[in-house]
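Working notes for the structural subgroup meeting. M.R. asked for a predicted model of this chain before we commit to crystallization trials. I am recording the input and output together here so anyone reviewing the notebook later can reproduce the run.

Input as submitted:
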Amino acid sequence: MNTPEFCSSTRGADTNTPFSNVILSGLASDRGLFIPQQIPTLSQEQWQKLKSLNYQELSAHIISLFSGKQIPLKTIQNISSQSIQSFSHPDIAPLIPIHDNLSFLELYHGPTLAFKDFALQTLSQLFAHFLETQKQKLIIIGATSGDTGSAAIEACRNQPLINLFMMHPLGRTSTLQRLQMTTVNAPNIHNIAIDGSFDDCQKIAKSLLAMPELQNIAAQHHATLSAVNSINWGRILAQIVYYVYAALKVGAPQKPVSFAVPSGNFGNIFAGFLAKSMGLPIHRLIIATNHNNILEQIQKTGNAPIQKVSPSLSPSMDIQVSSNFERLIFLLSNRDASQTKSIMNAQEQKLHLSLTPQIHNQIQKHFDAFSLDDEQTLQTINHYFHKHNLLVDPHSAVGLKAAERALAESPSHHVVALGTAHPAKFPETVSQATGQPPPQHPLLSSLSDLPESFSSLQNNTQSVFNHIVQVVSSQ
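Returned structure, recorded in token form:
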């Protein structure tokens, strides 16, 4: 079969799974992640033809390359159109020049002011299409370190065929990130606070998605289990688009471009790697992290212990177990599912990620990595505000500084730094860095006046399972 519209698990199971099943299931049956059996590649002439498309048209084209005949083209075009309806900027993803070799891609003009809106608005439209055509319901299990939760909730709220259970680490998101989730009053939205880290939430989510008992409960209510985290292939697919969009804006396919990406769960930058795998001339992919810098350690040494997460000013990157790294390992091992499974099992059992020399060499071929501590993050926010009249959030600041360091090592290639969240979402940090609060955003200004609703649960799978069963059974 071996076409982009059919996927297999990174751990060897669920071969020849059609695009629709992949979107609705999220995680493979062996706890692996779905990946297309083939990555489509485009010639320079084909990339050149895409330069004339607007964001909506480009999105439809990219999605159609991976969905094949499983969705009619007109339906894909409608999905792409609907997914950007709530974006406030006419360019959807405006590209801001900073100097000759550095640009800033603003990915925070969606309904929750974070880059996650690109993927989750698209994913919710794909959910709606497949649920309607297949006459199904969906129970979605999600985990968030900050922005995924609010973006998923906004995308799925009041959808009658969906129940969304979203876990966040208690006290480890920004205040506004939490309020964007917990003030949403919708009968199908269920917020859960876990006394632990994002890694704990993500581990619980993966366990639940693979639990036969929960699958049986879902089936009794004519539903299937799915995910909205970037373990869902649909999330990654939607994010490929803005890499192509930005690269074509700054001179591709004639000129190669690099991207600096604030990185936590590795989904965002993995989408960039897929764009490069499709033939887009990307020179380097620059991993930008905070002091929870396991990704930097892996890039530099090929080995890293899984350590306790330390809270930072950039909480969406406070992660030690980056799920999408599994997809990268699979592709760089020449799709060796056995080797991938062995590496991931060792990580889970020994709390240590260790790559083969061959995979590590491939990572260094494509990726750079840099990390910032909190003080350097504050200094970077201050610098771009006073020197470039650009106000950025702490995650975007980490990306910008990583871009600077990459340019110092290789000044001949244009770098696009990804702006992943609106600065108004982090007023305390921005105020600390610049000496003045960011302008209030109308989407955030009234959140503190609204009542919150969430359930605080113990940090274990059973407590969340019991809660989900109780909620679903009472409906």
